Please model this.
Amino acid sequence: MQDLLTEIAEVAAENPDKGEVANYIPELAGIDPGQFGMAIALADGSVFSAGDADVPFSIQSVSKIFALTLALGRVGDQIWRRVGREPSGLAFDSILLLERENGIPRNPFINAGALVTTDTYLAGSSPREALGELVRFVRAAADDDDIHINEKVARSEIASGHRNFSLAHYLASHGNMYSSVDKVLGTYCHQCAVEMTCRQLALAGRFLIDADSMPALVSVERRRRINALMMTCGHYDGSGDFAFRVGMPGKSGVGGGILVISPGRASIAVWSPGLNQYGNSKLGTEAMELLAQKTGWSVFGVPHVRTDGDV
Amino acid sequence: MQDLLTEIAEVAAENPDKGEVANYIPELAGIDPGQFGMAIALADGSVFSAGDADVPFSIQSVSKIFALTLALGRVGDQIWRRVGREPSGLAFDSILLLERENGIPRNPFINAGALVTTDTYLAGSSPREALGELVRFVRAAADDDDIHINEKVARSEIASGHRNFSLAHYLASHGNMYSSVDKVLGTYCHQCAVEMTCRQLALAGRFLIDADSMPALVSVERRRRINALMMTCGHYDGSGDFAFRVGMPGKSGVGGGILVISPGRASIAVWSPGLNQYGNSKLGTEAMELLAQKTGWSVFGVPHVRTDGDV
Amino acid sequence: MQDLLTEIAEVAAENPDKGEVANYIPELAGIDPGQFGMAIALADGSVFSAGDADVPFSIQSVSKIFALTLALGRVGDQIWRRVGREPSGLAFDSILLLERENGIPRNPFINAGALVTTDTYLAGSSPREALGELVRFVRAAADDDDIHINEKVARSEIASGHRNFSLAHYLASHGNMYSSVDKVLGTYCHQCAVEMTCRQLALAGRFLIDADSMPALVSVERRRRINALMMTCGHYDGSGDFAFRVGMPGKSGVGGGILVISPGRASIAVWSPGLNQYGNSKLGTEAMELLAQKTGWSVFGVPHVRTDGDV
Amino acid sequence: MQDLLTEIAEVAAENPDKGEVANYIPELAGIDPGQFGMAIALADGSVFSAGDADVPFSIQSVSKIFALTLALGRVGDQIWRRVGREPSGLAFDSILLLERENGIPRNPFINAGALVTTDTYLAGSSPREALGELVRFVRAAADDDDIHINEKVARSEIASGHRNFSLAHYLASHGNMYSSVDKVLGTYCHQCAVEMTCRQLALAGRFLIDADSMPALVSVERRRRINALMMTCGHYDGSGDFAFRVGMPGKSGVGGGILVISPGRASIAVWSPGLNQYGNSKLGTEAMELLAQKTGWSVFGVPHVRTDGDV
Model:
């Protein structure tokens, strides 16, 4: 496994086309696109990494997994009254379908849906309390207390987040926003500004592996369902392409991170800040595709016995 | 496994809400919604069935799997220049996204995309030759020569298929239809009118199981990719919901049939003519959900060893 | 003319279907829908009125005419770089086309376009100064200093204006909002909260009559163009219907007021708070239709000599 | 008036940018874009012309005026159950709104709406009879029997008309097409292939002038309403711009012709085959704008007495 990771990191390093760093969040725009890190946490407890796997990055929309998990913990399946579970077929910040569907976002992984998720786990708490709970959850999942919110990034996103404010007010106009727009946006932008390394993120994802040896933070049924949502909706309007090429559930963030789960086997984190046309990490997506080819870990392939986990 | 199937069939029989039979194809409108059949072909070669598993039904859009396989065999990945691989987020016969995207259908499993698929495997052949090839492929996959096209259903669909004609002409207006509209529509409607029993369909689906013991009609990579498309796009705008509830790749047809693949383990066919709000078999979807719960066959769960295939 | 107005007011009084008072602005929701007023200012200087023509009401979107006139005075035709001149075919607060067209609203009379207009005449001023200029303009046009902004209504709209905040942030995300969203929204909501009577509104509209005897507040070309925009875009997605039935350029507001211009002849104001399905005054629209029938003032009919102005 | 027309034709001749000839109808694609003709029929019976005013051209969508008039004659206001009266805000052949609105086209001047119009006047007749009636109506209006359908153009449009076939089948799928799609399309394409000169078209438009001296082919109310529709919907998604710049009701065709009505005064035809971005004649639109400026004939300006008709 270590050899494989090293090989993948070399392929990434040699690729001249690193994609484009997102420039709409000023605080993130200046990041060097040449960086690449990857880490894998296996169901047997072993961890492997390569490249810049210990450099912290802004997890951005990868946080939507943790937020959804918290929100499900709060209200359970009642959340599906306020947000759907279907791929949107449109860009992550599109407002179009929201109008067609009277303020019910398509799924919790597009921005509008994630605002509903944040509003759900925020209910009745102060932003500080809710964010405290989120960070504690992520730290517990990763078994690492050195995970923090980057206040500067959060403020940069609030200051430049007109599209998200637009979505939140739109939801509010349909009665699908319970706390105030400012409070939800503030919490949401801080949630997105959590910083983690690939190693931390891979470890934090283990509760979704669906293996008895892993942290049991959610029920078996719930972790499968979260994986299903990651498969169909995890990469915005590039979700079908990711499923086609990688064949594993994943969730990407505009900071260049992707968390992928190989059910029963592994939690995999990759990071490279340059993005492809869908707003997903370019080198990260390619690395995941290569990993899937080399390991046969597509969920659409023959399931191996768990002891094959080390490939 | 037999006990499980029998139990599922009993649950279906007792459900008073059978859904609504599709009424836009006159020849199918009169079918008794009380029927229910199910069959499972395991990777070890064994086959189980329950209910009306030997009653032939119109496979309709389930045929899009076989059509796509043929088309990929013809032109390989070049087909992706003419059709996408993303969920549409809209109804199976929507024309809306087609306008947004200049005549490139979202995926091969919505009607517009399937018309492109038919146009692809039809290229250079007569409809009779192309349909002959399709039927031979299905018969070979099922290892059963008693599979036929229902000419009356085909003609009924041609006569009432204004929406499909509209889609085909729209594609043609964008230059994404190589044969004549009438020829493609005629072939498409005959393809949809293939009749199979659940047993035959389960057997025919084995080539997608991704197990060495199964018929090797397509390469390993291709069968995984077809499964990925079934997962993200197989149930129109109910694909996310099916993935969430069932967790296995599947493809439904308006005739009430659904083919589901448990990679490495099984090919499963279910049939019940009443449909839910997405146009997918209501009892069939519920039966697949129950099967997934009882077997743990969700692709998002712990992979079992292959010998666990008998549950 | 007085007899005609009296007759129209009687027809309105007897109509049992008064429409529905808009309820999304709390401060306006409690208004008695039984009220009806109408006033006509002729090119010869005479003024006629009937019903509740001296009751002040919230002019709401009728203010968009005055706002556009101010904005054109500020930047002239440069405003057309930021807003279009085409009917939207959609509801007054739709955000759909805004996404299709990258943040350029369809026309200055839907909410998104009016926010751009407000942003234009606001540029470089404080809201207080800009609103002062607006009120002075309206007072000068009406030759009446007793015209004021209802502060309570303005605050009620700001507090409940999620949809407008959504539109404004959306515009801002496309760089089509120069002042801050809060500043523009505050100014916009105060502008909408101007209160006028039918008599005052009819008098204030005279500068659009295009007659030499009228106040020359804008050039001949500009007043014709504003009339053209009122004709094609003045009633949201009911503009075509209004042109078809009334045949004169008009602009409605959700407070139940409508200002209509008979070029060369008259400025006509009507008010009744109950709305039809397009969000335009129901009795007001019907009164204008009756007036058009009785007078033959449709711009699509034979032009009479100006001395026929008294009908 | 003759001097004015001559001047306008000279301005057009000197304009180096003639626009682009439509190339989607093969039979029309080869036309020389340098041609320009204009003719004006005044309410007093006099006729003026300039340039290529006696060269026959394909009136294409200008025919929708005559078709609507026939259809209104057949079924009166019942036609508004099958087609709306609102601007579409989208291209002439867009199918998008049709899906949103369940098969009711926005107005009779976009292609989908015109297909409903054709289906209406066709009802119960053979295409030959219906087209005979149409041609007789146009000849009577123009008082000229030398007006014919170009069979080659009609066939070229049928052969290349995938978009229109798509629209017609879409309407049929919603039950909004009573005759067969082939029959309606055949009739529609022949209707569009009527050939007229500018002089003939100007004369044919006189029944819409709304002056007692003109042919009384429709009631006063109906001619005003047709003018209203021309104003709000006559130039597809460029209708607002045409109203803004020209200020008179008009209807354009992709063959480069435009018919404009100055109510009470004149019927004006212009022709130049090169189109602007909305699919309307470029030089023709500019000529109409110049005419409006020179004459003050905007319906939004001071109505002159009828004897001012000679300018």
